[in-house]
Amino acid sequence: xxxxxxxxxxITRSDKVWEIVIRKKHKEKIIPISFIAFSYMIxxxxxxxxxxxxxxxxxxxxxxxxxxxKYYTSAIVDKIDMLQKDMGTSxxxxxxxxxxxxxxxxxxxxxxxxxxx
Length: 117
Description:
Blueprint: E1 2-12, E2 17-26, E3 29-38, H1 39-48, E4 55-67, E5 70-84, E6 102-105, E7 112-114
Antiparallel strand pairs: 1-2, 1-4, 2-3, 4-5, 6-7
C-alpha cells in the first residue's frame, strides 16, 4: 500500500525503532497516521534528511497481533520517498539593514523591489 502526506513528527522509540507520523485530511478533519520504521528504513530517513513538514510517500504493509485478547495493528514502512522538502517561511531573501537600496522582497518569488519602484 502507498500513502502520501506531510510529516508531522518523527519519534525515536529506540535505536532500531522509529515512528513516522504523517497528517492526512479525511472528511474535513486532519488525522495523524503513525508508521513504524526499523533499522534499514531509519537509515533511509536519515539519508533523505526527512524532517517535519516535508512531503513524503510511504510504501507500507500492515501487521496485526493479538495481545490481551485484543488485536493491534501496525503499519510497517517498506519504502520511503521524498516528494517535497519543506522550505518553510524561511527568510533567505530577507535583507536586514544591508543597505537602503531595497525595501521589499516578494517571499514567494524572491523578486526584489528597489526603493521607490
